[in-house]
Amino acid sequence: MSKLAICPGSFDPITYGHIDIIQRGARIFDRVIVAVFNNQSKAPLFSVEERIHLIQESVKHLPNVSVDSSDHLLMDYAKEQNADAVIRGLRAVSDFEYEMQITSMNRKLEENIETLFMMTNNQYSFLSSSIVKEVAKYKANVSDLVPEVVEKALKEKYK
Predict the structure, then answer these.
(1) Which GO biological process categories is it annotated with (predicted)?
(2) What angle do helix axes 48-59 and 16-28 make, rounded to 10 degrees?
(3) Domain 4-158: which topology?
């Protein structure tokens, strides 16, 4: 039986930290869906369609990874996809408290879908999409933080 995991996020934009978690999840699960969700509390730089394209280009080397988007609750989406698990990356202890609250609610909504927390690689522990956008806005080099396709897209946005 094939095991499917959902790797959710806003991915505005995708970073090497996200890709690290996705690659590691792809080694554990038969299939991984990277699902773009719109975080209503954030004003995104990239549209959902742009984010999907940037993610597809960034993970095309992973044959068992696909990209999708949803406006539903994560657990409703995961259930629709017949997912076995949700993969969440943790950068620091500060992420854990927030993620624990979300996971507790998700478990209440759908107890049959597990949440797997993965610690981000140390080299990416400081990395967030917000930091990347801030640095890119001031024309600083982000080539070691994001794939080339994302770097080009950021330069285009901040012309």
Answers:
(1) coenzyme A biosynthetic process
(2) 60
(3) Rossmann fold (3.40.50)
Residue 149 CB neighbour total at 10 angstroms: 17
Which one from 18, 24, 31, 133 is the annotated catalytic residue?
18
DSSP classification of residue 69: E
Tokens (6 digits) for 29: 């699960």
From residue 142, give the alpha-carbon distance in Å to each of 3, 43, 66, 92.
35, 21, 25, 21
pLDDT for residue 155: 96
Q: What is the pLDDT of residues 56-78, one digit of tens each?
A: 999 999 999 999 999 999 999 99
Distance CA(117)–CA(86), nearest Å, equals 8
Catalytic residue among 42, 72, 152, 155: 42
**How is residue 97 annotated by DSSP?**
H
